[in-house]
Amino acid sequence: MALTRLLALLFGALFLVSATGCVDPEDLNGSSGGTALYVFDATAGAVLAWDDLGALESATAAPEPSRRLTGSLLANNRALAWGGMCFDPSRNRLFLVSETGTVVRIEGVSRKNGELTSAQDIASFTLDNADRLSESVFAQAAVDPQDGTLYVAENGKSSSRIWVVSNAGNLPSGATASLQALQASGDTGGTGVAVAQGAVYAYAGGGSSITTPSSEVLSGSRLRRGGGGGFNTVVLGDKTTLGSTGSNGFLALDTGSNLLYVARKNPDLTTGGPIALFEAGAFTTGFNQAPRAQLGTWADQGGLKIIAHGGSKDWLVAADEVAGAPTDRIWIWRSPSAAGSPKSVNLGGGVLVRGLALDGSS
Hints:
The protein has a single domain, classed as Neuraminidase (6 Propeller). The protein has helices spanning 2-20, 25-28, 53-58, 72-75, 298-301; strands spanning 36-41, 46-50, 67-70, 80-88, 93-98, 102-107, 114-115, 122-127, 137-143, 150-155, 160-165, 176-177, 181-182, 187-196, 199-207, 210-211, 217-218, 222-227, 230-236, 247-254, 259-265, 275-279, 293-295, 304-310, 313-322, 325-334, 343-346, 353-359. The longest helix is centred in the first third of the chain and has 19 residues, at 2-20. The chain starts with a helix and ends with a strand. It is built from five helices and 28 strands. The strands form seven sheets. The protein has a five-stranded mixed sheet with strand order 7-3-2-1-28. The chain has a five-stranded mixed sheet with strand order 4-5-6-8-12, with no helix packed on it. Mean pLDDT is 90; it is low at 1-30. The protein is mainly beta. The protein is 10% helix and 45% strand.
């Protein structure tokens, strides 16, 4: 009996070892498996979904999308704000914000395919035009998985701010969302926003100079962190690599490792890369903080515009622009926290990418 039990235990141990040996180590800790990519195609006015980002990244040529989401509300929103698409993993909900403040909301997006016509599936509301900044354009959008609040960057002629829409998941078609704002006085060129667990990160391309407690005067592009009551910490200065005349800064948040990715145009830089990676702790240790790493190269990814992260899954996807216009090319980083090289993928078919979102919830 004892010998039989010993043999059974040894066989079980050998089975576990052999089975484990067939599993991708990355999938054991959930770092990159099971992630879907959503792309907004400005040509068709449609959302394209690839349900397996890993398969897209490893393919020699881009496969056809797993799903295509279409409909009049999407087609009418072709002028999507740069980075104006975001995914709520807690509610399986997708938001798309236009440059002029029209917001399209898709419910149960991971289960949707084809034309969306039902009010239960898709709705559209607007950010109150009466509350807009002078000559403003809306930019990146982000949604907090904790409570479903939508955040949208607005970049005006002489100031910028973040719109906060706490009831974005409940507004019916035709409704208007009134202004509730997060704003730092003096900031300009605000284009980027990211959020998780009530912590809001924002990018501004410039603004008023800031004097530190040690009497150092800092200026230029900056990152801010705050919450419902406003912004309380800021990172700026020459060490940040954000630059003195930066523009078009877009953000992506790794919620699993508390890392903030910043895609920025910086004419001051000739080394490093177009994406700076900051740890969340950088916002509590001083103003002029260097990034932990830089991703990509200016030679290869100099046209990079918008980015999206898988949240708890370690994927990063970026899209290019040429002379201010979108292209069909995306860049895919597997395990970007390790600062490796990306895979370049041309989606083809006349696709023009203005929005990206990743679903790493599965």
